[in-house]
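Objective 1b: paired records.
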Amino acid sequence: MADYILVIGYGDAGRDAVNAVLEAQPDARLTVLDTDFLAVAEAVANGAVGVVGDGRDRCALDDAAVDAADRVFITVPDDLASFLIMRAVRTMNPDAVIVVVIREPENHGLFDSYDVTSVHIRRFDEQQ
């Protein structure tokens, strides 16, 4: 059975994650959760299932089937929101591999005491 991957946030980093997943695993079941309807529509056009909602909201996470996700990529543009989303995801799916993209290196420590598989720092000069 193909992996189920949830990407929360479909900005530059979210698009990069979706494209990387589709390139490496074309058969992956992929869902994108974002607050922006147009971003979700773009993700659907790119081959993902789309859910409009806030990753901090447990109802939106339920709609995106976070409990069934094998991997969760959190790519929202705010590090505090990423932290809150990560805590909600971990509560709802203790076994998921979680990858978080943060903006500020000093916030890396926020994620150290939680079972986050990987934290990536996206520098401002990497953003378009």
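Objective 1b, second protein:
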Amino acid sequence: MIGAAISISNNIAEGFEYNSNKQLIKYLGIAKGSAGELRSQLYLLQKAGKISLEVYEGFYNELIEISSELKGFIKYLNEYEKMKK
């Protein structure tokens, strides 16, 4: 779980460092995937009784927001790239 959580921010940072919107879009997609992976892991923990439903729902909602923001940023960058052509 720690790896998936760290992967979100690390992939955003790595994509940004390429100074290329195409690469940033790629790595934002990977970060979004890591957010989904973390949601899945949290779900399994909650079902196994390792975390409460309240804790699960709090993290789940935060991860949905992160995924939504990443999706919006990817959409913006894709539209920006289309306008440049």
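The mean pLDDT is 97. The radius of gyration is 15 Å.
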